[in-house]
Amino acid sequence: MSNSATRVLESRVFAAPIATVWAQIRPAEFAFWKSAVAAAAIEGGAAGEVGSQRKLTFIDGAVQRYQIVELSDLAFFLTYELIESTPAVASSAAIHTIRLRKVTHDNSTLVEWESDYSSAGDETASVVEDSRCKKREALADLAKALGAK
């Protein structure tokens, strides 16, 4: 088996100010992701604290635990790492960053959701496709949470 690494990036522009979008992203509880996340809990620290953990229970029954590794209110980004998953995922490591950028032309917000995966074996293609689909779904849910039609 060979090891491989891959990066997945999805992005979307939202017709909302960056502070409004950041309020949805910063808690890292994914409350906006109604089509996939059933429950979220803060564990091992306080909200907004680097090193704190989030336990997400998905509608399909999967449970994942993430650790916040970087958070910037100045640069509007959140980085978190998958530390546990039931059932197990096909990657051996996954680090995700959600970054917001202000679009000055019309005060909208560009959201970029990037994930870096390491895996052993032939799972890379399925991991990439699954990640891409989930990000698109989550960004569509974020648009609904922000009041987009």
Automatic annotation (TrEMBL):
Domain of life according to the entry: Eukaryota
Name of this chain's protein: Bet v I/Major latex protein domain-containing protein
